[in-house]
């Protein structure tokens, strides 16, 4: 287990965090049906994130960003290594970890589409442990922050993609967590909605001293929003630093070239 | 402590009534089912063989089968609701959003079935009220408390089996053998549509392996014959207690293993 003393400013620390998935070979090779295949999605990740920082997990699809995010959110058990989130041990204090974080993904189906935005927030507020009184005070506040006060009474299914994403942020804000994990939060959004979300992250979350860990494969987004990024490739953390610092590293030239090409292809 | 279960109940209720047509259609289904069995009972009810076989419950086939079909709903919901609801949340995409909140998984799994049980209780009440008001079923001798005790134990026994069934869904996602085997076998030998006394001896002995046999026997004796805690009802309740004591710890162990396995695979939220 890691010792967490003298880490007052560090809200997230991982130590050789690894996640391997194992499955049987199965019908793909009937002769070796019971042979096990192991795939390492996250390999020996060592990471330290400070309070109030916007940290980007930058890498192409399949780099391990989402798996790492889910491990840190307690949704997947790590295979080895350890981590502390807000001072709580990821393996042994899962409830306290969950009370300190929010996960905002690009998955718009994480809400009940036939209920209104307001009903959804009331439901999740209770699951986050807010009392009726706290929820009654908090829900209008978070709706105002994300600019959804007027639309709160409408069914979730009637919202645009941008509005759904803003409701995702509103849900994350409910319990006033220390760390916001965001998994490709701008996926599917138009440029204006992307700009609005970036502005919300910058002006609302970091202004309140919140920490944001954002998985993205957009270099431009990482450069605009993140204080530092961790470059992930094939499950490993290859480098950590500001985008500007890392862009000057010759050993990462191929990687940046790939991401720039990816960004350009997305724009077209 | 009850706020989270109540929030899940309210959410499921709101979702259910958002499909208004389906909600009311289910009650129409109950009416047609009751009418159909009423005419079956008109056809066969006067037969001495039927009356002799049902003498233990008062001899009336319609009363017998009404309780059978009404309360076997609890078998279906106990066995199927946990796995159905987990799979439903996985397919809707809401499971992950719930799992990331500081709410314990057992609370989510157990509370997700509250609405199914509440709605089934309403359906059973509609069956009994229709039977009593329109088709002359006599509940004047009913002793409600032992019937409720039998019902509670039945819900616990069936739910334990349902939690084991849900554990299969957590790991294998589809293809749950537990619910299928127990549901079809219970309907065949549990005394839902006919008394187990008409079964051949070898098949009758299988009946005693399923909790529904004891549950329906106790509920019929209590509601139709007013047998309180008689020796027959007492024997049924004891059997249901033993079933619950055996299946509940097994279900908790199996579900704990399933959750750990699904978390290791990272597949808890997927279908």
In short:
With 268 residues, chain A is α/β, with parallel strands linked by helices. Chain A is 35% helix and 26% strand.
Q: Would you mind describing this structure in some detail?
A:
The complex is a heterodimer of chains A (268) and B (271). By secondary structure, chain A is of the alpha/beta class. Chain A has helices at residues 65-72, 94-99, 117-127, 132-145, 161-174, 191-205, 219-225, 243-247, 253-267, and strands at residues 10-24, 36-50, 54-58, 80-85, 88-89, 101-105, 179-183, 211-216, 228-233, 236-241. Chain A folds into two domains: 14-100 and 177-267, Rossmann fold, CATH 3.40.50.300; 108-161, no CATH class. Chain A has a six-stranded mixed beta sheet, sandwiched between helices. Chain A has a four-stranded antiparallel beta sheet with strand order 2-1-4-5. In chain A, helix 3 crosses helix 4 (132-145) and helix 3 packs parallel to helix 5 (161-174). Chain A starts with 9 loop residues before the first strand and ends with a helix. The model of chain A is unreliable at 1-7 (pLDDT under 50). Chain B is mainly α and 271 residues long. Chain B has one domain (55-265). Chain B has twelve helices and no strands. In chain B, helix 1 (3-18) crosses helix 6 (105-111), helix 8 (144-172) packs antiparallel against helix 11 (211-224) and helix 8 packs parallel to helix 12. At the A-B interface, helix 2, strand 6 and helix 3 of A face helix 1, helix 5 and helix 12 of B.
Describe the SSE topology:
The complex is a heterodimer of chains A (268) and B (271).
Chain A: E1 10-24, E2 36-50, E3 54-58, H1 65-72, E4 80-85, E5 88-89, H2 94-99, E6 101-105, H3 117-127, H4 132-145, H5 161-174, E7 179-183, H6 191-205, E8 211-216, H7 219-225, E9 228-233, E10 236-241, H8 243-247, H9 253-267
Parallel strand pairs in A: 3-8, 3-9, 6-7, 7-8
Antiparallel strand pairs in A: 1-2, 1-4, 4-5, 9-10
Chain B: H1 3-18, H2 20-44, H3 48-53, H4 61-92, H5 95-99, H6 105-111, H7 114-134, H8 144-172, H9 177-189, H10 201-207, H11 211-224, H12 231-265
């Amino acid at each position: 287990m890691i010792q967490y003393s003298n880490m007052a400013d560090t809200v997230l620390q991982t130590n050789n965090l690894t996640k391997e998935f194992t499955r049987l070979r199965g019908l793909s090779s009937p002769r070796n049906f019971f042979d096990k295949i192991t795939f390492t999605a996250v390999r020996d990740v060592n990471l330290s994130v400070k309070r109030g920082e916007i940290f980007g997990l930058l890498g192409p699809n399949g780099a391990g960003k989402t798996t790492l995010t889910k491990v840190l959110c307690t949704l997947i058990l790590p295979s080895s290594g350890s981590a502390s989130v807000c001072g709580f041990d990821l393996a042994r204090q899962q409830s306290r970890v969950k009370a300190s974080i929010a996960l905002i993904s690009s998955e718009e189906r994480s809400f009940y589409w036939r209920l209104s935005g307001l009903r959804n927030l009331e439901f999740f507020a209770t699951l986050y442990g807010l009392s009726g009184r706290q929820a009654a005070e908090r829900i209008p506040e978070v709706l105002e922050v994300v600019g959804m006060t007027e639309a709160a009474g409408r069914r979730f299914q009637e919202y645009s993609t941008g509005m759904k994403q803003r409701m995702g942020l509103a849900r994350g804000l409910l319990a006033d967590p220390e760390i916001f994990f965001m998994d490709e939060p701008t996926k599917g959004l138009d440029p204006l909605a992307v700009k609005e979300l970036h502005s919300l992250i910058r002006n609302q979350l970091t202004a309140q001293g919140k920490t944001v860990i954002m998985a993205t494969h957009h270099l431009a987004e990482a450069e605009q929003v993140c204080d530092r990024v961790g470059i992930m490739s094939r499950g490993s953390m290859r480098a950590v630093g500001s985008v500007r610092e890392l862009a000057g590293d010759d050993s990462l030239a191929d990687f940046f070239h790939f991401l720039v090409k990816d960004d350009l292809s997305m724009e077209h | 402590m009850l706020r989270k279960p109540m929030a899940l109940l309210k959410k499921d209720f709101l979702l259910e009534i958002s499909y208004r047509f389906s909600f009311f259609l289910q009650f129409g289904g109950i009416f047609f089912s009751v009418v159909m069995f009423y005419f079956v009972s008109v056809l066969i009810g006067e037969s001495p063989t039927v009356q002799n076989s049902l003498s233990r419950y008062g001899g009336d086939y319609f009363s017998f089968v009404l309780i059978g079909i009404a309360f076997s709903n609890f078998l279906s919901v106990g066995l199927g609701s946990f796995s159905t609801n987990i799979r439903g949340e996985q397919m809707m995409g809401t499971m992950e959003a719930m799992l990331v909140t500081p709410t314990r998984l057992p609370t989510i799994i157990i509370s997700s079935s509250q609405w199914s049980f509440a709605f089934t209780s309403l359906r059973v009440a509609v069956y009994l009220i229709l039977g009593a008001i329109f088709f002359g079923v006599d509940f004047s001798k009913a002793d409600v408390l032992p019937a409720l005790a039998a019902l509670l134990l039945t819900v616990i026994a069936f739910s334990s089996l349902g939690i084991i069934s849900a554990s299969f869904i957590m790991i294998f996602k589809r293809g749950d053998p537990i619910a299928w085997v127990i549901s079809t076998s219970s309907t065949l030998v549990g005394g839902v549509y006919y008394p187990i006394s008409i079964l051949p001896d070898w098949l009758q002995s299988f009946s005693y392996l399923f909790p529904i046999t004891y549950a329906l026997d106790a509920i019929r004796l209590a509601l139709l014959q007013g047998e309180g805690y008689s020796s027959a009802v007492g024997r049924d309740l004891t059997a249901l207690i033993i079933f619950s004591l055996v299946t509940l710890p097994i279900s908790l162990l199996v579900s704990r293993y399933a959750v750990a396995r699904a978390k290791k695979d990272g597949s808890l939220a997927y279908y």
